[in-house]
Specification:
- The protein is an alpha/beta fold.
- It has a single domain, classed as 3-Layer(aba) Sandwich (Rossmann fold).
- The strands form two sheets. It has a five-stranded parallel beta sheet with strand order 2-6-1-7-8, sandwiched between helices.
- Helix 1 packs across helix 9, helix 2 packs across helix 4 and helix 7 packs across helix 8.
């Protein structure tokens, strides 16, 4: 099937940290010739910007007072995704322990979510994109043709995240991930949840290529069904 056939499709991939969303989403986008958007990086960029300016991120009112200021721009090339805040490349800085420890608090602020939701929908535009996050299928793009909810065994998630961030304490990483799950799934604004109509994929027993192939198949089926 040609890339043109996918030119307006929206693929929503949600799930908790360490479930394989980023690698899977980039792989699917690259294989199908689609754009790619990492919404989690946008929340991290907002968090980085606030921390750099000394804003107390556990003070929702303080966050609300500044969250409209930063210019956050996400590149959508799956082979070389970028994220900038006020023109500064923050792709590495947003993975710091400081940002990781603060992003849940910032993400829970409704005004932050509303601001970034607008940017995310602008990026989605007419489609032709794979979007990853925690509320894509439920909130950001509820009309997405393909919705996938990725999960994995906590131990597997911890190993993946530790490998990404160069950590060695798997127990601490797993504890941190589970704590993040609790915050994300219980927050009032757009909690982490599996959207109606989403396909649940437990990535624990599969290779990355196998998961990508499975989701590419879902997209191909969806596009074929509407022809």
């Amino acid at each position: 099937m040609s890339e043109r056939a996918h030119s307006d499709v929206v693929v929503a991939i949600d799930g908790p940290s360490g479930s394989g969303k980023s690698s899977t989403s980039r792989g699917v986008a690259a294989r199908l010739g689609l754009r790619y958007l990492d919404t989690g990086a946008m929340y991290r960029a907002m968090t980085w910007w606030l921390l750099e300016r000394g804003v107390p991120v556990d003070d929702a009112a303080a966050v609300v007072a500044r969250c409209d200021e930063p210019v956050i721009d996400s590149g959508t090339d799956p082979l070389a995704p970028t994220i900038t805040a006020d023109g500064v490349d923050v792709s590495e800085a947003i993975r710091s322990p400081e940002v990781t420890g603060a992003v849940s608090a910032v993400s829970a602020v409704p005004e932050v979510r509303a601001r970034l939701l607008r940017l995310q929908r602008e990026a989605i535009g007419g489609g032709g994109i794979v979007v990853e996050g925690r509320d894509i299928g439920a909130v950001v793009a509820p009309d997405a043709e393909v919705k996938v909810y990725l999960t994995a065994d906590p131990a597997a998630r911890a190993a993946r995240r530790a490998a990404e961030e160069g950590g060695t304490d798997l127990a601490a990483t797993e504890s941190s991930l589970l704590a993040r799950d609790r915050v994300d799934s219980t927050r009032a604004a757009s909690p982490l949840t599996m959207a109606a109509g989403a396909v649940h994929v437990d990535t624990t027993p599969y290779t990355l290529d196998e998961v990508v192939t499975l989701i590419v198949g879902l997209v191909e089926d969806a596009v074929e069904d509407r022809r």
